Amino acid sequence: MTPAPEPQPFKVVIVGGGTAGWMAASAMVKLLPAQDYSITLIESDEIGTVGVGEATLPHIKVFNDTLGVDEAQFMRETQAAFKVGIEFVGWDRPGERYVHPFGTFGEPWAGVDFQHHWARAHAAGRASELHDYSFAIAACRNNAFEFPNEDPKSIRATYAYAYHFDAALYAQYLRRWAIPLGVERIEGKVVDVRRDDGTGHVASLMLASGAEIAGDLFVDCSGFRSLLVGGTMEVDWQDWSHWLPCDRALAVPNMRTEPLLPFTRLTAQEAGWTWRIGLQHRTGNGYVFSSRFTDEERARDVLMSALDAPPLAEPRLLRFQAGRRTAAWAGNCVAVGLASGFLEPLESTSIFLIQAAVMDLIGLMPTRRSGIDPRLAAEYNRLFEVHYDRTRDFLVLHYTANRRHGQPLWDHVRTMELPESLAHKIALFRASAAAPDYRYGLFSRDSWLAVLVGQGVLPAAWNPLAEAVPLDDLAARLADLKYRIEVNAADMTGHGDFIRSYCPAPALEPAA
Predict the structure, then answer these.
(1) DSSP states of 465-484
(2) Collapsing DSSP states into helix, strand and coil, what is residue 236?
(3) Cβ neighbours of residue 85 closer than 8 Å, sequence gap 6 or more
(4) Rounded CA separation 229/219 (Å)
(5) β-strands 202-207, 190-195: how paired?
(6) What is the pLDDT of residue 233?
(7) Gap between the Cα atoms of 341 and 353, Å rounded
């Protein structure tokens, strides 16, 4: 009797490299059973990648740890530094600043979230500013970094960290890491897409070389072109530029002259905002702006005048539109990264959205037995919408909560009609100090608190259960908390010193 043939692996074909493609390939080859799946990635050296993303959120550490990446090696090879928050300069009013920390504010007392206690004490003149009660913010102020304490009861365990790194080097690092594990890389340019006449699914891709690559599931990491999901499958684009009007970015690197800061700095400008991101070998700079409120020549002048050292290259212009596809999974094609949507890098969400898409896809991955089940696609698209819609609301908050009167862009975003979901969140916080506390998706309650309070949105009332703590006791607790934060933060290692001892890259410059 002739034995039954071995079942063929379910073939996943990733179109496009860059950060999105290689994050997808790396996670799949690591986490999916090798005997059940084959992973092929097609990329062309002729096609560039956007690659301006250099700042991340703490979720990237979870991703790297899941892969089993050696952190110090990864940081050396990508010229990375640590990041424990984002500093916003002038977003409420010119000259004012606050930090969005990667950590908690205070501690819950008597079963009530900290902001309710703080709001009560602050209204009575018995508390300092909210940002004095965050250990991560104290670390940023002191330009310090150490790994969080493993004792969950320690004040030094109340923060997390992310990285600044060179996104192009990160993609190259993952490529070197993933190929020996079994990812098949094909150098080539897709020139045609062939579809199944019956299902309409993509059957194969034709390359300029004449090769034909068949697959069962196609992951579209082709960037803004959205070759498969936007092009072949014709999934509509949902335009969010009426809420997020910035549609251009200029990016330019320069040599690092200032100390290596453990935070990203974002400074509000007349028609948008500039970023400054410190890596070991250089500083990344950029200006995200709206072409409705300035022109490219003026934007270039604003960006270049903000540099503290000569540029290492000419500014690079990127055009974009804020929004997302109405679905990320269509037929047997799944869009990841820029192919699925774009939100300006205001909160370093680009790489997180790639990571979330990849991990959600792995959790809902079809099998040879199940095939392309539309219920999997429906759930994936539901999660996709949650990620993008919640992130959109958080970004729009930064713009609408401002007092930069007399500047056309800022007057527009302050008075525009908001998404109903965001208007509700702001009104609820003003009325009761209740902040969003998602179990899924971005951002945490502490993130919302940082931006709401940092930009002048204060609550008029609080949870009445907070009244159970006598005011004098509450004031004493707050003073003790602030003291413990200050003392422990002052004892931390300087960020640059920590980098030099842990993961110095060959091009590391001496501290200024």
Answers:
(1) GGGGS-HHHHHHHHHHHHHH
(2) coil
(3) 99, 100, 101, 102, 103, 136, 137, 139, 140, 262, 263, 264
(4) 9
(5) antiparallel
(6) 98
(7) 9
**What is the rounded average pLDDT of the residues 313-341?**
97
Is-contact 369 251, C-beta < 8 A?
no
Residue 55 neighbours by CB under 8 Å, 6+ apart:
83, 86, 162, 164, 264, 275, 277, 345, 348
In angstroms, the CA 51 to CA 250 distance is 12
Q: 340-398, pLDDT tens digit by residue?
A: 999 999 999 999 999 999 999 999 999 998 889 999 999 999 999 999 999 999 999 99
pLDDT tens digit sequence for 35-58: 999 999 999 987 655 555 589 999
For 294, counting Cβ atoms within 10 Å of its Cβ (0-12 exposed, 13-18 middle, 19+ buried), the class is buried
Q: What does the alpha-carbon distance between residue 327 and residue 334 come to, in Å, rounded to a whole number?
A: 9
Burial (Cβ within 10 Å: 0-12, 13-18, ≥19) of residue 258 = middle
Determine which one of 83, 153, 189, 482 is catalytic: 83
Strand 10-15, strand 37-43: pairing? parallel
Q: Is 83 a catalytic residue?
A: yes
Structural contact between residues 328 and 334, judged by C-beta atoms closer than 8 angstroms: yes
What percent of the chain has pLDDT above 90?
90
